[in-house]
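Suppose you are handed a protein chain with no further information: no name, no annotation, nothing but its sequence. What can you learn? This example shows the usual starting point.
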Amino acid sequence: MNARYDRLRKPIAVTADFDAPRWRRDFPALRQRVHGKPLVYLDNAATSQKPRIVIDAVSEYYQKFNSNVHRGVHHLSELATEAFEGAREKVRHFIHAASVREIIFVRGATEAINLVAQSYGRSRFKAGDEIILSEMEHHSNIVPWQLLCEQTGAVLRVIPITDAGELEPGACEKLFTSRTRFLALAHVSNALGTVNPVKDMIACAHEHHVPVLLDGAQAVPHLPVDVRELGCDFYAFSGHKMFGPTGIGVLYGREALLQNMPPWQGGGDMIRVVRFDQTLYNDLPYRFEAGTPDIAGAIGLGAAVDYLEHVGMPAIEAYERQLLDYGTEQLQRVKDLKLVGTAREKVGVLSFSVDGIHPHDLGTIVDREGVAIRTGHHCAMPVMERFHVPATARASLAFYNTREDLDTLARAVEKAHQVFL
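A reasonable first move is to predict its three-dimensional structure. Written in structure tokens, the prediction is:
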């Protein structure tokens, strides 16, 4: 364990009796063997596996009440609408939003961020206005703002990060000027696992009358999230990283802001009246949900929320912190291995490199041992440039992982070391 990292971390209640193997049994995909070995799935930051309750919820929709939502008067449509809107309420409760009008279903965090950039930003920003991001952002929280800058003449300003993978202390405050119009920031870094001090940064931004969007894709599966306590103006996350289906996600936005934002896409549920000389738009949240939504995906996401609340987010956070500490200790015993990202506050992401072995080769050898990890730039090229590496290997944890999984990972990396060096 990195002594500095261990010494400075905030204490957290530890759940000694968390039964990861019990929860693991709820995930059918984790029962399989890969290359003749029991699967050790450590690619959760890319996408998580799905529990049976989510799979069954999606299957039940298609088998029993497959129908379009909202405007149908027949029985199946009423059942579909009830389940779809019920999922919206579950999400609202899960992140503690004030109203279901603040919960917009989208395809994922990427679409949510694009929606805010185009609807909020494009109608307000002009040449010379400034948007603050951080050096650790996922491409999905960089490129939409670059596109907006090309459209409006606004410019990006970037918060640098330290060698530990933390935001430079005080750097954000120094970047605010009279031209700052927006702050978009990862709640948790997908490449480093860093948990950013977002509540303090939101407070700082609001002192400058600057709204804040948080990319919560890597936070929601691992930490309790309360958008009202954080004070953020927008919060984006994806279903598939929180044990739900792919193709569904959520944009939370404060109702007062959403009410004054123009639609981003047209058609379907976002309309109230359409004439050739004028269209009247629907109320929130439907104004931002053009076309037939991912009904099955939303229902599956609702089931994932039910499941996470059953397991308990505080218990998940505490257990995964134990697991991260253990995994850090095991990997640091591997010769020539270097961890990339040693922030004081982290979730379960272990990015690393091994001297003399390309991460892609490392990932291939590890896969032959039944261990699934991610290798590459993790859609965070600026992070790789900051640490002067072309790529890293990344093991990312979920509450169904165990110490034995991390032992297997460490042995597999040791084997790769022996093969190549």
